[in-house]
Write a structure and sequence with these properties.
Blueprint: E1 21-28, E2 31-37, E3 53-61, H1 68-74, E4 76-81, H2 83-86, E5 90-91, E6 94-100, H3 103-108, E7 113-121, E8 134-137, E9 148-152, E10 157-161, E11 176-184, E12 193-198, E13 202-205, E14 213-224, E15 227-230, E16 237-240, E17 254-258, E18 261-265
Antiparallel strand pairs: 1-2, 2-6, 3-4, 3-7, 5-6, 7-8, 9-10, 10-13, 11-12, 11-14, 14-15, 14-16, 17-18
């Protein structure tokens, strides 16, 4: 009978998360919104039990995107997020995490490239490597618009606001290219979509229905060459489009006299809330 001879002990294979992918970045106000896809597996093909620890690396450069080697040498870890913290920023494997840049840093780094990468680590700090590098030019932004005033007219919901004059660091605002108007029908988080743009601090929303409630906020848009950046949003303005307007005056009234009768015709009104017509008669000319 053959008997096996035990071999030398084999060290356990470390569980290291795969590399995060698809990193993107966009500046809105004083924050750079980072998004990336979380890995689901370890490098050995086993499944992660939950979101791994994530490190966010950042550096600022002038000119083009650096090589991965240069970035690794110069970048610093600006956030180290435990898995339970990462989970609060995850939706369907996509992490949306804001890097908040203070006004002084935005002023100091204005026009330079903020370059980011993220990496996933295990409990021992071991990593399979960095994600793709993502760079964007960052700029100072205007202070948020304080108040949006609304007015409902027969043909539009009017929005008006005072244009900002200072950046968040207190410097005068320049390079304002216009305003971005966002609208929602519920006011809930994530429900606002870009509805239109305005060159001046006035916007008319003609795409509305009477009897419907709408919510709006406005961002100031600055243009720096080919780059554009939005401020943070104004306070949310809520408006109920109540129809307090009479239907238009009947047009093209025609009177045809006949034997013992008078026929009247006019153009039908297109008013959605029309209930009918009142016909008035007088025996004296010019008296209503």
């Amino acid at each position: 009978m053959a008997c096996g001879v035990p071999g030398p002990p084999v060290p356990p294979i470390p569980k290291i998360p795969q590399v995060p992918s698809g990193l993107t970045a966009r500046q809105v106000g004083e924050r750079v919104q980072l998004r990336w896809t979380l890995p689901r597996l370890n490098t050995d093909g086993t499944r992660l039990e939950g979101p791994p620890k994530i490190e966010v690396l950042r550096t600022f450069v002038s000119g083009a995107l650096p090589s991965p080697e240069r970035f690794a040498a110069e970048a610093k870890v600006v956030y180290s997020l435990p898995g339970q913290v990462v989970s609060s920023f995850v939706q369907q494997d996509i992490v949306a995490f804001p890097d908040v840049l203070n006004p002084g840093l935005l002023r100091e780094q204005s026009g330079r490239l903020a370059v980011y990468a993220v990496r996933a680590t295990n409990d021992k700090g071991e990593s399979a490597g960095m994600s793709n590098l993502m760079g964007l030019s960052v700029y100072p932004v205007a202070v948020p618009i304080a108040l949006v005033r609304t007015r409902v007219t027969e043909r539009a919901i009017e929005l008006r606001w005072e244009p900002p004059t200072r950046t968040t660091s207190g410097a005068p605002v320049d390079a304002v290219a216009g305003y971005q108007v966002y609208r929602s029908e519920t006011g809930g988080p994530g429900s606002f979509v870009l509805h239109g743009t305005a060159a001046a601090p006035l916007y008319e929303d003609a795409q509305f229905r009477f009897g419907q409630k709408y919510f709006y906020f406005v961002r100031t848009l600055a243009q720096y060459g080919a780059d554009s950046v939005e401020s943070d949003g104004s306070a949310i303005a809520e408006v109920f489009a109540r129809d307090l307007f009479p239907p238009p005056v009947p047009a093209n009234v025609i009177v045809v006299a006949g034997a013992g009768r008078v026929d009247l015709t006019w153009d039908a009104s297109a008013a959605a809330d029309l209930k009918g017509y009142f016909v008035y008669r007088s025996l004296e000319s010019g008296k209503g």
